Structures are given as structure tokens and as C-alpha cells.
Amino acid sequence: MALFLVFGYQLVGLHAQSNPKSDADAFYIREIYNVALTKGKSYPWLEYLCNRIGARLSGTPQAASAVEYTRQMLDTMGLDSVWLQPCMVPHWNRGEKEIVRITHSKMGSFDLKALALGNSEGTGPNGLAAEVIEVKRLDELESLGRERLAGKIVFFNRPMDPTQLNTFAAYGGAVDQRGLGASRASKYGALAVLVRSMTTRLDDVPHTGSSTYEPGVTPIPALGISTNDAELLSRLLKEEPVRVYIRNTSHMMGMKPSHNVIGEIRGSEKPEEIILIGGHLDSWDVGTGAHDDGAGCVQAMDVLQVLKRLNYRPKRTIRCVLFMNEENGLKGGQAYAEVSNRKKEFHLAAIESDRGGFTPRGFTCESENRAFDKKYKQIMEWSPLLEAYGLSFKRGGSGADIGPLRSQKGVLFGFEPDSQRYFDYHHTAIDTFETVNKRELELGTAAMTALVYLLDKFGLE
Amino acid sequence: MALFLVFGYQLVGLHAQSNPKSDADAFYIREIYNVALTKGKSYPWLEYLCNRIGARLSGTPQAASAVEYTRQMLDTMGLDSVWLQPCMVPHWNRGEKEIVRITHSKMGSFDLKALALGNSEGTGPNGLAAEVIEVKRLDELESLGRERLAGKIVFFNRPMDPTQLNTFAAYGGAVDQRGLGASRASKYGALAVLVRSMTTRLDDVPHTGSSTYEPGVTPIPALGISTNDAELLSRLLKEEPVRVYIRNTSHMMGMKPSHNVIGEIRGSEKPEEIILIGGHLDSWDVGTGAHDDGAGCVQAMDVLQVLKRLNYRPKRTIRCVLFMNEENGLKGGQAYAEVSNRKKEFHLAAIESDRGGFTPRGFTCESENRAFDKKYKQIMEWSPLLEAYGLSFKRGGSGADIGPLRSQKGVLFGFEPDSQRYFDYHHTAIDTFETVNKRELELGTAAMTALVYLLDKFGLE
User: At what angle do helices A61-75 and A295-309 cross, to 10 degrees?
Assistant: First the structure.
């Protein structure tokens, strides 16, 4: 694109829709966007979180630093209250650099790019070596049985489906291998598992992410390997048996005290109706958790900053919650809901941003409220106000941290940005500040602030 | 985002819309997406264009290499014809590394990050030094007059408006400074111009781009400076007079022979109705023209590759055109239209991709046809088939290269991807292959192929 063509784009906002009684709302939403795009603070906050604090795995000093930093930032805004909410979180440690080594093959001996999966137990200092058997699905384990699996390393190699338009659907279709692969293979006597990384890309970047041992299962080592290495290993296995040596020393270090970080503007008319915006403050220990979920945290904080800058006086209570331990325990989200239920609070709505700092496309929403159909219809009536900003609503899951609030029967929203790049970075060493675009991040703040404005002004009847 | 939540996303395609007679179309479009996302070739082609050939400024050996490479790639596809179409293009040369030096200020002497604007004439080997005067708009020149401007360096410093949702609208609102600043300032005796780079970012990356001298004007040097340097220079100017030394040796080297690259599948029923898809093969001399417009070229080529792989037999002629010299002359687009008019061809539709390889949002369309309202209505009726892929149609300018085809009174489409990141890279040294996401690029191919399919099947009545 070269010459100075003006493409005939129009200003959006004032004339975004035709209902005259909503012109004030269209105008206010335009103001929200103007402030978010010119006075937003999310980008420098994210830079600090990622580059000055770094990775924020639950239980680490960096996670504690992130709690203190975000508390201080919320404290600068003139909110009605800012506080820390205690919770106990599992502290997992990756240990020494993982070794996943093909010990002999027609290509000789060489190492694969690997990361231990979160919450998994390592091999210990001596490592282990065994033959590899490749499977594509958890249910293949049953047909192979103990006879074929005992003493082996099981290699889960079902790729994410690249034809899914929304990469989260592709993730949902493949992540059972990472979450449950070790637990299921252990039941058949496998010694360890290797799991193809959760991305549609073919590259050399291994992805971590949580793995769970079901009750009563012997914990076995579980490591993610890069997709290029998964392709290579699979090719070798088609030709000959392959033995792999694995050594890693990851282990659970017990529970540690930590906190959710909370700030709120109290409502002037219906303070008992809470509108929550949030993300999770913890990240994995590789990379710096820029998209997952530094972006969501700084966007949620910036919603309050934008509203304060606009001198907005909410009718309802607007509360920003930065949850701890989404990645490997969800203890922050659970603690928050427990306290909230004990206090008999009611969350009219909760919005979670945990799908990266990319260009906003809209919101998914869900509720256990029996009148949700009616509420959803009301929400859909706001669509014309948001269409000009490329936003739409649809039904769908919201977010892990706010999930425990379902029983309060409010409406839970998941902020939904463009999904194409998320799994390039997700749970990797390359989820860093540089991969976040300032405008895309700020547009997310604006989109969430606009929804908060509508929820606060109109409620959900 | 951590645990293995399935968000309830659904497969799109078969049930994308409710009109039963269009189920076949929905199915075919789903197939197009499947092939584009699993068998696309755009990404490796782009890698070759950017990393093996490099920058492709009109008239350079690299531009010739790109012509030959893309011709060879089209030749592998089993098309009905592949040919080169001659055109004469201006060959501009940047010359030696530019110097833009603040010679004395309270911060001492230091260099600004600068790039000569395309088609501009340099200072020559001795350079020039003068006092700087800052303006925000072209029309300020008239009020300042020759008295204030003669012998000065005029600094155009109006930023792109960050509150515009579509960054092309912000670009359209600022780029007159780059395109016409030198020409207009020259009329008042200015010695040279500096222009704030065309991006909403604040960074150290200068942007080039074309600059035009109007007839009869004395050509004066014109250079873009980074936005950070523009902010700094502006701050200094508020406090004291600032003198700048400029030295650059850019110059026009005359006209050189070059080519558009064309490949087509001939229509079986109405071969005289042409559906064109295209991008421009030339780039600026800095960076490697990945988004601008390597992406558009490889997408247009891949449309044909996807159709061939599907064994699609078009009723109408589907033609891929890779235009030369969009950036600093538009000679390829003009030559193409001249030949086409001479042959009395009719382009039923032309689609240009020249806004980067980002996630598709839809298409703008325009036409000089008096029955365009009716045709636009027909196009809008296809929307339900494309909604599931996040695509919509709107009226608006199409693309520079296909612009000269307007007089044929077909419908011209501009492929419209997400615009947020485009001006981070546009016309800079950082417009490189690594900034292009494979899926986003391939989704563009798929979107254009889907539109070609609909245009071919239904025509435009």
C-alpha cells in the first residue's frame, strides 16, 4: 500500500446505530475508546510485569512481586478500596533443564526440545530410558493394554486441527493428551509420557501447561516436545524402534501463601451488584506470561483507570480481580468465590480476559441463571452499539478463574480477541512483551470498559 | 489460559446459514478453507520472496528476480497460461545512508533516525544545513508564506490519529504531509522537508513511502524521521531554534523495463468475464516487503493453487496478476489496464490484497457501474456464507493497482484484514517475513478464494 489513498472509512460512534435514545451511549462508548487509545496505561504496566518482574509462577518470589506491583498500581487510581485476598497455592518447580534424548536411531543420538509439563514429577537425578510407543488418542491406551504399554514411554502425537477457525476449538480438541495423558498411561504401567506441543505451528518451541494425576495413580514424568520434534520422532518410529532417555527433576514443593489482588469502585445506587473484570496474575515459569495472562491483568486494571479518568460514577460496584494460580491449581479463583459466597455477595456479571492481548472480536457469555435466555436477549440488544468496534456476543464458556462464580447465577463473560496467534506463544519461552501490540491491547481495555458501562447502566433484568 | 476447558466453539460451514439451497456453497467454502489451511503454499513462497530475494524496489535486480520466481511458481500449477506483461518503471535509488543531524541544541549534536522518501531528490554530496520550522498541516504553509519558510527546513509533524479504529483512516488523515509536503514547501522557498513517520506507534523506526513533486516545482529533499525523533525535535523547537544538517544522495535513475506477472485459468462458459486477484510484487528498498505486499502476491497466487488442488473448473476466467511498481509509480497497474482496454477485456471483478497478511475481516467494494446498488445488494446476500469466517462486505476503496480498471465498470474489491499492526511495519526495515503469521496469511487466501468462488458461480447481474 503506497500512495495516499483515503479509503472512505468513516468515523464510528455517534452514528453507529439508528436508535436516537442510545446516541448518548454511543457517544460515551466512543469516549471510552478515545481515552483507552490515548491515555491507556496497560502497555507500560505490562512492560513492567514482563520485563522488570518476569515469569510469575505461583509460589515464586516473582509472583509475590507481581502481587505487590499491581496492588501499588491500583493504589494510584483513587479507587474506593484496594486489598489483597489470601489464598494457598501449589508451588511447582521445574528443576534442572530437562533432557529428552533419542539414544539411538538411524540419525544417531540427539536431544529433543522439551519442557516438563506443569505439576508433573520428574524422573529424578538418574533419569530413565525406554522404548517409545506413539498413540494419537487417550482411548488407544485401553486397546493397547498393559502388555504393550508397561515399561514404555508413551508419545501422544495428535496435532491440533488446523482447519478450526478458532484455535481454542483446536486446543480443546487436543489438550486432553497434555492434561490426562500421564495419568492414563500410568495406569497401564508406562514409565513416562511425551506430548506433542499444543500449537498448530511447526516449530522448535516446546510448550508447557498443566498435567494432572488422577487420584491413586502413580505419578510418572510428563514432558511436552516441540511440534518439529514430534514430527521427527513420529517419522523415526515408522521405520524402527526408538529408545529415549529422559531426565528431569521437576517436583511439587507444597503449598505456599499467596494472594489475589483486588480493587474496586463502589456503586452509588446498587453497590451490592458487583461487576467483575479480571485476569490471572500467575504465569508459567518460561517466557514472561505476556499474553497469558499479563495482558488480561493490565486490561482489567486499565478498565478502572479509564473509568476514573472519565470521572465515571458507577451505580453498581466495579471490581477488578487479579487471580493467582490459574495455571496450575485455580486456587485463587476458588478462594475468591468461597469468600464471596460466604459474604453473600452477588456478581451480576464477571468478565475474564485470558485469551491474549489481540484485536478484540467480542465476548462469549454463559450463565446458570434460569432466566439467561431473557438476559442474553437483552445483551444482544446492545450489539448495535458495539458492532462499529468489530465486537459481537455469542454463547460460550467464559474463563477459568470466574468459573467458580457460576453458582451465584450472574452472567459470566469471556473476552474474545482474535485467536490466530495465541497458540504460537501460549505456555512457551516466547510469550514475551514484544509479541503484544499496544493498540490491540488497548482495544481490549476499551471493549471491556464499554461492556462494563452497559452492564452498569442497564443491569441485567 | 491453562486448563483443558472446551469453550463450546462449533464447527462452522455446513450449518453456517439456513438457506438449504446454499448448503452446497457452504460446504464448498468449508473445503476451500480446509485446503488453504492445510495445503496452502503462500507461507513458503513468502519466505522465499522475503529471505531469498529480499527487497524488491522497481527497477532493481531483486524486482527482476521476483518476477522470474513468481512466474516459475505459477508455471508449476498447471494453469492455462502464464505470461509476463512488459511495463516501464521508474528506478529510484536511495543512495548513501541518510544523515539528518541536529547540529546544535541544548542536547548537543546528534543524528535522527531517517529515511529519504521515495522518488525524492537528495541534497547531493555536500548536504545542506538550515533552521527547522514545524508545521502540522499543508495549509499552514500559505499563512506562514515565503517570508517565514524560504531557506528553512519544514518539519511536518501531524501524528496519525490513534483514536481511529481503522488505522487506514488514520493514515489517510496524515499522509498528505508525506505525499505533498516537499512539493508544497518548495513553492515557498523551503530547502528540504522532514516528515513524521506514518504510524501511531512511538518508536525509533523511520518510515519511507512515496513523495511527489508537482509539475514545475523545484525538487527539494524529503525525509521521514521516526516518531520518537519527531517528538524530540518538536520538544526542542518549543525551547529554542534548532538547526539541522541533512545529507542524502537519493535520486531518480530513469525508466527501466520490468513486468507484471500473470497466470490464469480460462473459464469454461464465460471466459470473457475475468475475475482478477492480485497484489503488487515491488516493495520499498528497506525491509523485505513482507506485509507490503509480498503477502498479497502469495495469497493471490495461492488462490489459483487452492482452486487447482480442488480441481475447480471455473465458468469464468480466474486471473492472478502480480503488479509491478505500485509503490512509486503505479506503472504496472496502468500498463495492465491499458492492455486490457485495448483488448476490449471485461473484468467482472478484481480483488486486490494490499493491506497486509493479517486476520481477514472482509472486503471493501466499489464500482463505477450505474447498477452497482443492485450488484452490491447481491454481494451482501452472500454475507451469511462468509459470516462464520468473520468476513463482511462494506463499501469503500479497493486497491491502487486495480484502480485503473474502474472504467471497465466491473466491481473492485479490497481485501480487508485486521488493520491494527499494519502501520507498525509499513515501509520500514522491519517489514520482514517473521512478522507474518502463517495462519493469518492462509486465512486471507481462503477468504479471497471463497469470494472468487461466489463471483464465478453466480456472476454479478
Answer: 10
Q: Indicate the pTM of the whole model.
A: 0.94
On the question of pLDDT at A347 being above 70, the answer is: yes
* Residue that the C-alpha cell 511425551 belongs to: A194
Instruction: Report the chain B residue with the minimal C-alpha distance to residue A201.
Output: B438
For the domain that residue B425 is a member of, what is the CATH number? 3.40.630.10
CA distance B333 to chain A (A): 13
Q: H or E segment at B252?
A: strand B251-265
CATH of the domain at A105: 3.50.30.30
Mutation to test the A interface, candidates B9, B200, B306, B421, most A Cβ within 10 Å: B9
Residue of A326, A327, A345, A416 marked catalytic: A326
Residue A361: closest CA among chain B residues belongs to which residue?
B390
Same-domain status, A194 and A174: yes
- Residues B273 and B456: beta-carbon distance below 8 Å: no
| Per-residue pLDDT tens over the stretch A378-434 | 999 999 999 999 999 999 999 999 999 999 999 999 999 999 999 999 999 999 999
Does some domain include residue A336? yes
B180 and B108 share one domain: yes
With beta carbons under 8 A apart, name residues in chain A contacting B290: none
Provide the shortest C-alpha distance from residue B273 to chain A (in Å).
Answer: 26
Inspect the interface and report whether the beta carbons of A3 and B292 lie closer than 8 Å. Answer: no
Cβ separation B168–A7 shorter than 8 A = yes
Among A5-9, A398-402, B145-149, name the one with the lowest average pLDDT: A5-9
The pLDDT score that the predictor gives to residue B1 is 59
A95 vs A416: CA distance, rounded Å: 35
B389 contact residues in A (CB cutoff 8 A): 165
What is the number of other CB atoms lying within 10 angstroms of the CB of residue A18?
8
For residues A195 and A266, membership in a common domain is answered with: no
CB A213 within 8 A of CB A183: yes
Cβ contact (<8 Å) for B8 and A330?
A: no
Nearest to B37 among A162, A395, A443 (CB): A162
**Which of the following is catalytic: B121, B134, B326, B352?**
B326
Instruction: Note whether A274 and A244 are same-domain residues.
Output: no
Q: Chain B contacts of A8, Cβ < 8 Å? A: 364, 395-397
Name the burial class of residue A89, with classes exposed (0-12), middle (13-18) and buried (19+) by CB atoms within 10 angstroms of its CB: buried
Residues of A in contact with B4 (CB under 8 A): 172, 175-176, 178-180
Q: Give the mean model confidence (pLDDT) for residues B256-264.
A: 98
Most B CBs within 10 A among A138, A164, A165, hence the mutation to make, goes to A165
Last residue of a domain, one of B218, B249, B280: B249
Amino acid at A81: S
**Residue B307 sits in the same domain as residue B222:** no
To the query of whether residue B326 is one of the catalytic residues in this protein, the response is yes
- By C-alpha distance, the chain A residue nearest B325 is A2
B102 shares a domain with B65: no
Please check whether residues B39 and B101 belong to one and the same domain.
no
Q: Which of B206, B229, B249 is the last residue of a domain?
A: B249
pLDDT in tens, A225-236: 999 999 999 999
In chain A, pLDDT over 70 holds for what percent of residues?
95
* Co-location of A310 and A342 in the same domain: yes
Q: In this structure, what C-alpha cell is assigned to residue B83?
A: 505470461
Inter-axis angle of helices A438-458 and A23-39, to 10 degrees?
A: 150
For residue A168, the chain B residue with the least C-alpha distance is B7
Residue B451 lies in a domain: yes
Condensed to tens digits (0 to 9), the pLDDT of residues B101-121 reads 999 888 899 999 999 999 999
Domain tally, chain A: 2
pLDDT tops 60 at residue A274: yes
Structural domain of A318: 20-91+254-458
CB A156 within 8 A of CB A193: yes
In a domain, B1, yes or no: no
What's the complex ipTM?
Answer: 0.93
| Distance (Å) from the alpha carbon of A8 to chain B's nearest alpha carbon | 5
Q: How many CA atoms lie within 13 A of A396 on its CB side?
A: 21
Q: How far apart are CA A314 and CA A376, in angstroms?
A: 22
Q: Look at residue B4 and tell me if it is in a domain.
A: no
